[in-house]
Design a protein that fits this description.
Number of strands: 16
Radius of gyration: 45 Å
Helix content: 40-55%
Mean pLDDT: 78
Strand order of the largest sheet: 5-6-9-8-7-10
Largest sheet: 6 strands, antiparallel, barrel
Distance between the termini: 54 Å
CATH architecture of the largest domain: Beta Barrel
CATH class of the largest domain: Mainly Beta
CATH topology of the largest domain: conserved putative lor/sdh protein from methanococcus maripaludis s2 fold
Shape: rod-shaped
Low-confidence stretches: 21-41, 74-78
Length: 352
């Protein structure tokens, strides 16, 4: 009995030792492994230089992210042109000089008419039994020749002045300014109209018959084409056109004009609302939605935009979905420093 009791005690002690050892190994073998930042890091991945942000639909809802499909728009190019209000002083001088030249021509013509009549009368009297002397006849003929010469010089001076002004301002504008029956100059001086010099990019293209002049907070002013200019603008490259408009801006003022779409080159583009654009590195970007959960940042052109902030881009394709709300949140998520596995570990033994 004593032997059996001793054996039972030994078995119990052995079992306890085994159980303790098993507990010690079990408890130490279940040390918490470092928790990697899978949730954070899986949101931003980079593959072949392309950075992708992954957000589940719940996260998108919480962040207020909204998307929309791009659609094709017929977008005009070169729709904005620039120019200035013409100074009237040269045109006033032109009109005065030209009308003076015309008056000189008229006076010379009247003198020729009078000399012609006198020469004919003298000739008739001379042939009628020499009622006048030959010397008187020759004097009348000499006066006619001189008057004809003066008329030719006056007409040449008028034509030269006209051609010179036409080379500077164009014939149609010169005709409007110099025509006695036209009141354009009077309207210009009374601030009822203004003359504009508008520069259009490129050369050899037909100029639009009408353009819209920006008038600040007021409605645009319609300007009508007078004629293409014969000379280029010294400050801007392109074809120059002269326009008239029923408004009165200060002489020399710079103006901005819009060209009707019918006179522009129209191309297929997509329009991007300003709410979809984020700026990074001095450049505008949008986020494309690859699928329900993945987004990729794409650069867009920053040289074509409208007054209300809508960007026009030719690189994006109609049908692609972009983030229209919450793009800044995606940019912040993309630029957030990655959380390392050590920093993400919550167990104190990660410090060992």
């Amino acid at each position: 009995m004593k032997f059996q009791h001793t054996s039972l005690m030994l078995l119990l002690i052995a079992a306890g030792i085994t159980s303790g050892i098993g507990y010690w190994f079990g408890s130490h073998s279940s040390v918490t492994e470092p928790v990697t930042a899978t949730t954070e890091q899986s949101r931003v991945t980079t593959e072949k230089g392309v950075t992708t942000i992954t957000l589940d639909e719940d996260s998108q809802r919480m962040g207020g992210i909204q998307t929309a499909a791009l659609s094709v728009t017929l977008s005009p190019t070169g729709r904005t042109v620039y120019g200035s209000v013409l100074n009237l002083a040269p045109l006033i001088d032109l009109r005065a000089s030209y009308l003076s030249a015309v008056a000189g021509v008229d006076a010379a013509r009247a003198a020729v008419d009078a000399s012609t009549q006198e020469a004919r009368r003298s000739q008739a009297l001379f042939h009628d039994d020499n009622n006048i002397s030959l010397k008187a006849l020759q004097s009348a003929q000499a006066a006619l020749t001189a008057d004809r010469t003066r008329f030719q010089v006056a007409e040449l001076n008028r034509q030269s002045l006209y051609d010179k002004a036409s080379a500077q301002f164009s014939r149609p504008l010169v005709d409007l300014i110099t025509s006695p029956g036209n009141n354009l100059l009077s309207r210009l001086l009374n601030a009822q109209e203004m003359l504009l010099s508008i520069v259009f990019p490129g050369n050899g293209n037909s100029l639009p018959s009408q353009i819209a002049i920006d008038n600040g907070a007021n409605a645009p002013v319609v300007a009508s084409l007078i004629a293409p200019a014969m000379q280029s603008d010294a400050t801007m490259e392109g074809q120059v056109g002269f326009y008239r408009a029923a408004a009165a801006f200060s002489s020399g003022s710079r103006v901005t004009a819009r060209v009707p779409a019918v006179h522009q080159t129209v191309s297929k583009t997509v329009t991007i609302p300003s709410s979809a654009v984020v700026w990074f590195g001095g450049q505008p970007w949008v986020y494309l939605q690859q699928d329900k959960q993945r987004f990729v940042r794409r650069s867009i052109a920053n040289d074509v935009s409208t007054d209300d902030g809508v960007f026009i881009d030719k690189t994006l394709v109609a049908g692609e979905r972009i983030v229209t709300r919450g793009a800044q949140l995606l940019l912040s998520e993309e630029q957030r420093p990655p959380v390392s596995a050590v920093a993400a570990c919550k167990d104190p033994e990660c410090d060992d």
